[in-house]
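Reviewers of the previous submission asked for a worked example of the structure-prediction workflow described in the proposal, so we include one complete record here. The input consisted solely of the amino acid sequence. No template or homolog information was supplied to the procedure at any stage.
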Amino acid sequence: MDTSKYAFISLDESRAIKGLLIFLIVLGHNAVFTRTFNGSFHFIYTFHVQAFFILPFFYVYTKQSRLIDCFKKYFARLYYPFILFFIILSLIFYITGGNNLDYNKVLNLDNSNIEAIWFYILTLFTGNYYLIDYFTGFQYLWFLPVMFSMSVLKEAFQNNKVVNIFLLIIGFVCYILFFVFMYKKPYDENCNFLLMIFSPFAILQGCGAYFLGKVSYNLINNKYINVVNPVCTILFILFCASYITALIVKGSITYCELWTYRFIMPILFINFIYYFKSNISRYSFLKKLGDYSFPIYIIHPPLCTTAYLICKNYFQINLVYAIVVQFVVLFISFYISTRWVKIDSLRKRTLPRAINEIL
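From that input alone, the workflow returned the following structure tokens.
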């Protein structure tokens, strides 16, 4: 038994919560669903991905880890897969002739091959989601560099009070910039692009995720948890109801309203999950999804895009097909993931658990 850490949730609860979160992430990428219900895309994105950043804070390490050890550990688990799958997706995108973001408007580039290569290398070192989108046609890989930086900061400095205060101050600003304001079109005129393009290993977004996780941890790990937790749970339900009501009545919400939801909903949602953690852990299918949440995350976006194009061109965009797409994509992603992980040599080369599995 590892006595260097303790947890606020059991193993089964953790597995089920991961399963629920990956279900919601697939739903957010299910364009048949998000185009069926106006505003559902922005609604889901006010809380579901953010909860994955908070979940590691349910595990507290009692021993201080060296920064270099944390870096190597999470580089193998998170940043190496980002580099690998970024290269794979970008090659596929290049071969198929894809093009998305006209990034050269930002820095007045002449779009030469040399500068394209420079931006490609820069993407590998920064995890900039604008450039990930430009080179691959997908943005979802941004999650891996951010989780990498956040995980390193959490494990290396969580017991250092001085560094924690500094990270919380910087993290608050970064949380507002990258998780609340995010971006507004056109992408290339946004200051977030310029901030992230020179942020190695998505460290600024990682600080924002650290702030979110630490605040959520402090809400759960306090003597008033029996009051705070149910209150946050009720508030989450009320905020969901208010968002849906606004969509029904007005058809949309303002940017100020959206920013408010993005600021508070992740914290309320993780309390909602914590309140119902025992109930969630009863569902075996969620625990099975949770066991393979990482490979499912890697696999599902191209499947969602393919399913959307099929429905758009040959069927219809409605609730029935949205449900079908959701479970077909989950089933295929889950099936591929189980086979992928069971081939140990392939798993070590693509989803290593330690740095020595790469070398």
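The longest strand covers residues 5-7. We consider this example representative of the routine output the project will generate in years two and three.
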